[in-house]
Amino acid sequence: MSDAAPPEVPRRADLDLLRVLLCGAVLLIHALMVHAEDPRYHVKAPESWWPATLLSHGLRVGALAGFFALAGWGSVGALRRRRAGRFLGNRAARLFVPLAAGLLILGPVIKYIELGQGRDLRLAGFRLVEPLAMPFGDFLPRYLTRLSLLTWSHLWFLAYLLLLTVLLLPMLAALARRAPLQRVPSRAAIWLPGLGLGFWLAVSGGYWPALHNLVQDWANLGHFALCFLAGAVLASWPGLEARLRAEAWTLAGLFLAGLAGLLLFGPSLPGRIAVGICAWGAIGAGFGLVGRYPPRPSAALRWLADATLPVFVLHHLPLLAVAVALLPLGLPPALAIALTVAGGATVALALHGFLVLPQPALRRLMGLPSGPPALPDAALQTSRL
C-alpha cells in the first residue's frame, strides 16, 4: 500500500463520546469490584454488595467488548492512511510504552497495596496471604527483582490489544484495502454476531474465571479477538453501522437479556452463551446509540477523548488508594463507590492535564505523541486507540 492517503475523514464526535463513556465505565468497574462478590481483586470490602456484583458483571462484559471493538474500528482507519510497518510502530508506541512504564512505575505501588490487603494476584492465580508488613522502600527492590511479584494490573488490556493487533494485522489490512460496503444488512443479521460470540465462549470455556494473565486466558483472548474484529468489520461496512443505529434500542435490550442470562445461569454453557450475547448487545448498542444521538462536537469532548488512554493508565493507583482509605470508615457501599470513582477520576485527570500534557517525555510514556497536541481540526478519529 502506498503512503498516499485518501482524503482525511472528519473526526467523529459520536465515537469520541463512546470512548469517554467506556473509559468512565472502566473506572466504575474498578470501584465496584471492591464491593462485588468476586474475590479476585486488589482491595476488597469485608462484605459484598449484590448491586455491585450485578453492575460489575454488566459493565465488565460490555465495556471490555466495546473497547476492543472501538480499537478494531480505529485500526482499520489507521491502516487506510499508513503502511503496515508504520502502523505497528505507532501501536507499539501507544501500547507497549505505557504498558512497560506502568509495570515499573505504577506496578510496585499497586502490588504493595494488594499484598498489604492480604491478597496476591499472580500468574498462577489468586490466593489469600498474610498482609505485608514492611516499608515500601524495602519492598521496591523485591518487586523489581522477583518476576513473581510483577503485576500489570489493569494494563493487561494494553498487552492483549497489542498482541491482537499483531496477530490480526493481515485481516485488518485486507479490510482497510476494501471499498467501504454501503449495503444495509437485514434486521435478522444483527443477531448473528452475538450467537457467534456465545458459541466461542461456550466451546472454549471463556469468561469464568476472569483472570487476565494471558498464559491461562486463551479463551478470553479469543473472545476479545472476535470483539476487535467486530469493530474492524464495522469500520469497513458503514451499512452495518446504519443498521446498528436503526436497531440501537433492540440491541440495548439484547445486552440486558444477556446480562440476565449471565446472572441466572452463572459459569455454565448457557451462562457463557449469555455472556457472548451480552457482549454483542453492548457493542451494537454502544455504536448504535452514539450514532443515533450524536453529541455536538466541542473542545471539551475532544480533550476528554484524547485523555482516555492516559486516564486509563493512571487511574487505578489513586482509585485503589482512595478505596483503602475509605474502607475503615464503614460508609454505605453506594457512597463509597461514588467517592472512589470521583477520587480516581479527579487525580487521573489532574495528572494528565497538569503533569503529562506539558512534559514531552511523560506524553511518550502515556502513549501520546511527544510534541504539542494536534489542532482539533487536524485530529482524526481513526488514529486513536
TrEMBL record:
Superkingdom in the source lineage: Bacteria
Pfam families attached to this UniProt entry: Acyl_transf_3 (PF01757)
Domain Acyltransferase: 13-351
Residue ranges crossing the lipid bilayer per the database entry: 17-34, 54-74, 95-113, 155-176, 188-208, 220-237, 249-267, 273-291, 303-329, 335-357
Keywords of the record: Acyltransferase, Membrane, Transferase, Transmembrane, Transmembrane helix
Range of residues in the leader sequence: none
Gene Ontology molecular function: acyltransferase activity
This protein's name: Acyltransferase family protein
Species this protein is from: Plastoroseomonas hellenica
